[in-house]
């Protein structure tokens, strides 16, 4: 009889506990696991409150958001600038000139894919070169030089023919021997004897 009374008491306690759970409509239900051995012990022996345990394999949620530093962010430099050595600052290598967002080589040099400046051979850029047809072009680092051929003089538009005959009249210098006539040619001049004169072996012009 005592055992029956203990069993009925345990069932009434369990029913009362379930009703209290269903009466709270706004309560968030949590998983509960009853200790079977404890229920059996209470049913047989003394009546006490039933303990509950959360299953060990129940999932848990961390509601605290922890900021994570984004280490995968890729930095870019504007234009064709690069990151300077041992720095996160953008710029141009020492041998380049910065103009806006881009790096350029000094005049007379061209930029290569390795951010290096390579000398431009201006003498081979054009068929006749930058000096024109009557000059010799010599390439120099970052520039070039022009030297006129014999019989030409450097002018505003390049090497121009020297009129040796006309120059002789202006300066008083002799281009040809006395009594000889001077005729200018491209890059040179020509001396010839007038009618009735011949050129002697010593270079003088004498009468026939």
From TrEMBL:
Keywords: Disulfide bond, EGF-like domain, Repeat, Signal. The keyword Acyltransferase does not apply. InterPro entries: ECM_structural_protein, EGF, EGF-like_Ca-bd_dom, EGF-type_Asp/Asn_hydroxyl_site, EGF_Ca-bd_CS, Growth_fac_rcpt_cys_sf, NOTCH1_EGF-like. CDD domains: EGF_CA. It comes from the Eukaryota. GO terms for molecular function: calcium ion binding. Residues 1-20 form the signal peptide. Residues 119-160, 161-203 form the EGF-like domain. The keyword Signal applies. GO terms for biological process: epithelial cell differentiation. Coiled coil: none annotated. This is EGF-like domain-containing protein.
């Amino acid at each position: 009889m005592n055992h029956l009374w203990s069993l009925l008491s345990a069932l009434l306690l369990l029913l009362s506990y379930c009703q209290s759970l269903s009466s709270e409509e706004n309560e968030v239900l949590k998983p509960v696991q009853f200790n079977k051995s404890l229920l059996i012990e209470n049913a047989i022996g003394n009546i006490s409150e039933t303990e509950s345990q959360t299953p060990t394999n129940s999932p848990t949620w961390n509601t605290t958001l922890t900021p994570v530093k984004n280490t995968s962010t890729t930095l870019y430099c504007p234009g064709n600038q690069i990151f300077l050595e041992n720095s996160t600052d953008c710029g141009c290598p020492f041998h380049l000139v910065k103009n806006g967002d881009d790096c350029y080589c000094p005049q007379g040099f061209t930029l290569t894919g390795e951010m290096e400046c390579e000398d431009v051979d201006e003498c081979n850029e054009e068929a006749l070169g930058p000096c024109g047809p009557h000059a010799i072009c010599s390439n120099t680092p970052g520039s070039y030089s022009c030297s006129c051929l014999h019989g030409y003089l450097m002018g505003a538009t390049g090497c121009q023919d020297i009129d040796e005959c006309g120059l002789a009249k202006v300066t008083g210098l002799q281009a040809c021997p006395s009594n000889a006539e001077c005729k200018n040619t491209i890059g040179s001049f020509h001396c010839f004897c007038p009618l009735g004169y011949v050129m002697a072996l010593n270079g003088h012009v004498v009468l026939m």
